[in-house]
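Annotated sample (chain length 415).
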Amino acid sequence: MRNKILIAFILISVFVLIDFYFFQIVVSVSKNWSATYRKIWRFGFWIPTALFIVVVLWWALGLPFQFSASARNFIITGIIATYLSKIIGIVLLFIGDIQRLAIWVLGLFKSSGEGLSGKLIPRSEFLSKAALLTTTIPFSAFAYGIISGAHDYRVKRLTISLPNLPKAFHGIRIGQISDIHSGSFWNKSAVIGGVNLFLKEKPDVIFFTGDLVNNETSEINDYLSVFNKIKAPYGVFSVTGNHDYGDYRSWASPEEKSKNFQDLIEAHKLLGYDLLMNENRILTIGSDQIAILGNENWGAGRFSKYGKLDLAYQGTTDLPVKLLLSHDPTHWDAQVRPLHPDIDITFSGHTHGFQFGVKIGGFRWSPAKYMYKQWEGLYQEGSQFLYVNRGFGFIGYPGRFGMPPELTIIELIRA
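Output written by the structure step:
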């Protein structure tokens, strides 16, 4: 409790100081307005500050927070967007103030006859308006990402050539969906639209590569009737992601956490997905066969390591093609390639493309690239491929900017 109160005091102090400095912009821009509008503008400025203080104190005192995960995300995003925008705005103001201060200091060393004095030059109204305009840009981007980007589902189609692909599988279309994060959704109609868009592609087989929920299995309950529509002639195969184990929330007991995970396994059954828990399935068309391997979450670094690739691989040595579902793409370099060079394609998700980035033609950039060597799209090393899906849902920030949610269709052809 003491640590929380100390953190709350620091946060409130820092952000109130930011607000006091930014308030100078508000005062400058509104100085020529009518008295009524000026009061509304200046009073309204402090309302988000008051709400922020209430939220931080509520958290520090450990009071019950009876809001959905989606509502919490919006509150946190609102705070981040507001203060990040203000910080960007006051950087411009601060640069101007440094210049004014420098001129004032120089004036102290000049004689009055040289045209300078020690009087501080007033801040220009233009600078204040420019700082205010600069503030609106990141805030607008945050808002756009929520309103337009969160559900701007895109179908990405590509072809992968495998020389050892059996003839019966030539042209098979694999649909991949990843990172549903059902606890974050706030627009069910849009989610249904995304699922329908996926089904219009008519994939032959579908892979779901983990993170059905954010923190607990109950989050999927309202969406079982949506995602159980996902079907394919040769089945839907799924694996778990790092968020599916309940590792990111507190549980009353180990038994309660274990029950939550058992409920998650049951949810996959209710959805009609064949959940692969470090195991494999043999897909047969005519007399030809390929292997579908499913690894529980395994991530390099700090992420959970539940996966046992050797178990998933067991019994597939003689099959000509092996397709692996493994949520975290760091698994590819850490274990898949060095230990099993005959796994042809690994399907992953996890990164979300950071839900923020830029893609123009062949150029692509996202902060995700500084965290993950493989963060979005198709990668190849030798004869092995890795595909990293940007994800269907979102977590934390309830939107996406420049990294829209993805539905992937990969056609396999025989080289």
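Annotation: The domain at 152-414 is CATH 3.60.21.10 (Purple Acid Phosphatase; chain A, domain 2).
Annotation: DSSP finds nine helices and 14 strands in the chain.
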